[in-house]
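Hey team,

Filing this mostly as a record. A colleague (T.K.) asked me to run one chain through the structure pipeline before their review meeting, and I want the input and output archived in the tracker in case anyone asks later how it was produced. No errors, nothing strange. Just documentation.

Input sequence:
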Amino acid sequence: MTCEDSDVCDATTSIEATGLLRKISDPKFLFAAYAVQEILQVLQPADQLLQSRECDLLSGFQVIEASVDVLRRFRSEEHVDEILTKVRNHDLESVVPTPARRKRRLPARLMDAHVEITLGQHEDNDARDTNTVRRQLYFSIIDDCVSEITSRFCERNTELAASVKSLWPESEHFLELSILRPLAELIGVDTSTMISECVVAKEMLLKRFSNNSHKALNDIIEILFPVRDAFPQVYSVYAAALTPGSSTASCEASFSVLIRILTSYRRAMTHRRKANLVLLSFQSKYTREIDLDNFVDIFSAKTRRLQLR
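Output structure:
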């Protein structure tokens, strides 16, 4: 690459970077960025827990319910005002200088005139209309998030959530068969044989349960594990509650195809080089006909010294 190519590349990159910087520094983008950032921060604990190998359904439902409650509290005029304040306090001048505007001058023929009434919109009205649109946008985002989470984890799975909660010894419906039936049927357990198991297992677990030492379903299943042959159906229900489908995310990530495609070398590659390699791969019919030995001889014969001016 010569210096001229480097200058052109740097100039183009600088222009594109300046344009992108102005876009992301626009108040509209900043409002959306601050709003989405706060929502994602609220959902981050639930996301981390559901992808954890130690996650159980009971803990997952509890964290999700707490996240939904926080999102519902975010749907308020006061919270929108806080985001608008952050946007106004964002130091745009230090990042992107405001372009100089042409100074307005009053026409000479209007020097002796005075204004009795104004027409059109004022800047204050425009600002109020803009804030109203942003409030509606923010409220719609909150409503969509809450409705989606509720439909996935609450409305459609209310019975399943109640079944999981009944596995905890402090629940008022602890190991009640009528409440456990949805979870048992989900994993194919015959509920007709669980009546005696639930009665005896409930009595044993209540005697051995301790608030200080037992904090999660993992601790409860450790009590059942040595006697799992006596309570096979109840143990299967507890094991199912400790095996949510989301826990497979960590396993899937270990053999993801993206790891093989997005290698460290390809991530460090420029877009121009990657595009050229894609073209070479697409035209593999012609590249296979190239004599590589002759190609190397021609390439080594050329000077690769950087041309300086």
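Quick notes for T.K.: Residues 123-155 form the longest helix (33 residues). Residues 1-8 have pLDDT under 50 and may be disordered.
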